[in-house]
Amino acid sequence: MSCLSLIHGQHHVMCCVLCEALTAASTTDIRVKQRNGRKCVTSIEGLDLVLKDVIIAENRLKNKGKEGKEERDGDELFLRWLKKIKSELMQELSVGGGKVNADKNGAPVIQFQGNKAYEAVDFLLGLKFRHTKSKIERSQIEIHDF
Predict the structure, then answer these.
(1) Is residue 93 within a helix (H) or strand (E), and if so which, with residue range?
(2) Is the pLDDT of residue 6 over 70?
(3) In whole angstroms, what is the distance from residue 124 CA to residue 22 CA?
(4) Where is the SUI1 domain positioned along the sequence (predicted)?
(5) Which domain does 36 fall in, by range?
(6) Strand, coil or helix: what is 127?
(7) Which residues 6+ apart lie within 8 Å of 50 measured at CB?
(8) What gap in Å lies between CA 62 and CA 56, rounded to an integer?
(9) pLDDT, position 115
(10) For FRET with 131, which of 1, 10, 40, 111 sits at 20 to 30 Å CA-CA?
């Protein structure tokens, strides 16, 4: 399905940019590290490369035509959405210890307890954005086990 068939009218240019951003070579890495014994930590890295532009465009399309809605900073908006994604992910996977950290490059990383890499992939593939009709492809997710 082409990106032009997803959104009609004046939003087709923005949609084409989003489709190119989603199909770019950027990947989301899911890593599982063993802490001690049977304990593991799962971390999701690289969501900023895949989802940041989509979330900003989603917010613009959602608030288009609404007065009194100011434009938020892209980084602040992305971190807010990332915290929502983290809490929904933790609820669905029934895990604890979730937090959003920054790695050494400043990119956000979601971490939570347990070896739930494949369940996290299913969750990320199920993310859908109502206004931009964008979603993450399986080819954009890479799993690194211990």
Answers:
(1) helix 74-93
(2) no
(3) 13
(4) 28-128
(5) 3-144
(6) coil
(7) 21, 22, 26, 27, 28, 136, 140
(8) 10
(9) 94
(10) 111
- In order of 1, 24, 43, 100, 121, the CA distances from 31 in angstroms are 31, 21, 5, 15, 11
- CA–CA distances in Å: residue 77 to residues 6, 14, 21, 51, 71: 24, 18, 18, 11, 10
Q: Yes or no: say if 29 and 121 are a contact pair by the CB < 8 Å rule.
A: no
At 109, list the tokens.
């990383």
Q: Strand, coil or helix: what is 82?
A: helix
User: What is the total count of domains within the chain?
Assistant: 1
Residue type present at position 89: L
Domain CATH number, residue 111 = 3.30.780.10
Phi, psi of 108 (to 5 degrees): -70, 145
What tokens were used for 120? 């996290």
Structure tokens at 20: 């190119």
If you search the block for the tokens 């992305």, which residue do you land on? 78
